[in-house]
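Q: What would this complex look like in 3D?
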Amino acid sequence: MSSRALSAAACLALLTLIPACGSPRPAEEPENAEPAAASEPPPAPPPPPAPSLYERLGKSEALAGVVEELMGNVLADHRLGKLFDRAHKDKARWKQLTTRMVAELCVVAGGADCGYDGKPMKDAHAGLNVTGPQWDAFIEDLGIALKTRGVDDAVAKALEDKLEQQIRADIVVGKGK
Ligand code: HEM
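A: Here is my prediction, written as structure tokens for the whole assembly.
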């Protein structure tokens, strides 16, 4: 047997033990091949930030409707109406009051560029001696206004909570609760 035939026979005998023997080498991956994951679609972009309370309320346009409704309720409310009588009789003053009320609600609800140009809440209500029960009546009238204008209950509650936390202490100074 020639040496060539011998090595072919030996390889044949070893074939079961060394599978690579005689079979073509598998194609090698190029050294700088991208990992398999790179061919997957790029990750989804992060979700947009949750809308602010101001946005959930419908921004200034919707707040203007709420304030119109609120002040109608307040004027008709025997617990509060008298306080606003004088302002209501003066068209320009009323317009200014309601515009500032919308801007202040925008601030409290976390809006940007609310354009509030009135006094700080403490100064604006100084001397009015607003009591706890008057505050509660005002917030009750606000709640009715929000409902009448179709604001979602959870959004209305969030606004009422923020008013309580942020400005109640600046407005309520009078005894009565
Ligand atoms: C949600 C709570 C309240 C907000 C956001 C609010 C906001 C305002 C704003 C922005 C002004 C105008 C300030 C200025 O012109 O410099 C104002 C004035 C006034 N607020 Fe309030 N207020 C609130 C609660 C109350 C309550 C509970 C009362 C009384 C029960 C009250 C009585 C008044 C009165 C009498 C004025 C003066 C109106 C005038 O004669 O021009 N406010 N308020």
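A: To summarize the key features: Confidence is low (pLDDT under 50) at residues 8-24. Residues 59-171 form a domain with the Globin-like fold (CATH 1.10.490.10).
Q: Very helpful, thank you.
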